[in-house]
Amino acid sequence: MESVVPGDGPVSVEQLLVEVARGDQQSYARLYDRVAGVVYGVIRRVVRDPAQSEEVAQEVLVEVWRTAARFDPDRGSASTWILTMAHRRAIDRVRSEQASRSRTERVGRGQHQRAFDEVAEEVEVGFEHEQVRAALGALTDLQREAVELAYYKGYTYREVAELLDTPLGTIKTRMRDGLIRLRDALGVAS
């Protein structure tokens, strides 16, 4: 790539890059004008999104300014060096976007599963409640009364005996028989 600037004569990209490496801002402006369009084109072909392509092109051109001293003319042309940098940055951007999209999808799936689990758990708990109510219905009135006082109202066996004005041994027998019937009705292994 050679430039034909009126009054300046032809200047190669390599010469401009050497001047940029010395901190010459005017040479950088000329280099920018020469390569910015091609850099954007290379990036746009890989990234496809115009806004992201502009962003990556800006990053590459800033990197050219910062790292111009690293350019080695024995390893290739300045244009190749700059365009290789642009291509690598574009690929990095695509990979970063894909990784970000994958993370977002994983998080989305995790949240979706959590919502599904909540519904499944709610249904399961409702089903268990229904089974317990049915099993309590199968107890005698005396057993059900003792079990409900002890397990739903939180009374001790002694307090249940006092409330029902029944000997403690009788309450314990009702509780034992009631719990055995509940266990059998719910299909719990002993």
SSE order and pairing:
Blueprint: E1 2-5, E2 9-12, H1 13-21, H2 25-47, H3 50-67, H4 78-137, H5 141-151, H6 157-164, H7 168-186
Antiparallel strand pairs: 1-2
Write up what this structure looks like.
- The chain has 7 helices and 2 strands, in the order E-E-H-H-H-H-H-H-H.
- The chain has 190 residues and is mainly alpha-helical.
- The radius of gyration is 40 Å and the shape is rod-shaped.
- The N terminus is likely disordered.
What letter string, H or E per element, gives the SSE order?
Answer: EEHHHHHHH
Low-confidence stretches are: 1-7
Q: Mean pLDDT, as a whole number?
A: 88
Strand arrangement within the widest β-sheet reads 1-2
User: What is the first-to-last residue Cα distance?
Assistant: 88 Å
> In percent, how helical is the residue content?
over 70%
Task: Please sum up the structure shown.
The protein contains seven helices and two strands; from the N terminus they run ββααααααα. Helix 5 packs across helix 7 and helix 6 crosses helix 7 (168-186). By secondary structure, the protein is mainly alpha-helical.
What are the defining features of this structure?
single chain, 190 residues, mainly alpha, two-stranded antiparallel ribbon, 78% helix, disordered N terminus
